[in-house]
Amino acid sequence: xxxxxxxxxxxxxxxxxxxxxxxxxxxxxxxxxxxxxxxxxxxxxxxxxxxxxxxxxxxxxxxxxxxxxxxxxxxxxxxxxxxxxxxxxxxxxxxxxxxxxxxxxxxxxxxxxxxxxxxxxxxxxxxxxxxxxxxxxxxxxxxxxxxxxxxxxxxxxxxxxxxxxxxxxxxx
Length: 172
What we know:
This protein is of the alpha+beta class. The chain is 58% helix and 16% strand. It is elongated.
């Protein structure tokens, strides 16, 4: 790789990092191509990315970004998971690491906030952005349904009362 290719790689990686809400740093020593393909596929399904990185070039790309504090984690065979959804990459990486001991979570960051491996694990237990949106929509729709029910109830009660009086008048 010549100098211009390295510069392009650094600028591309910097743009990726700046456009991400979260970055999770992992070691992948001993993973097969099939396992990496499976992990990348899971990441894409979750709306996240997974990229094997060159440590020196990644540390250069981190300079001046909100993830600059992650530079010390880039030693050995590292890869990063990243996304705009702060939970998706952590959830996929932690779930994958449970079944594959070759993937080790080193840490990560949400913006300027650094996370250790336990912090990434805690982040993975939170509901994803899509799940949170679905819950919020459900909460917003519930009051509207209740309001409609409350508004219809008096009219129904009034109709039943009038019907009772009409029935009573016919009986007399």
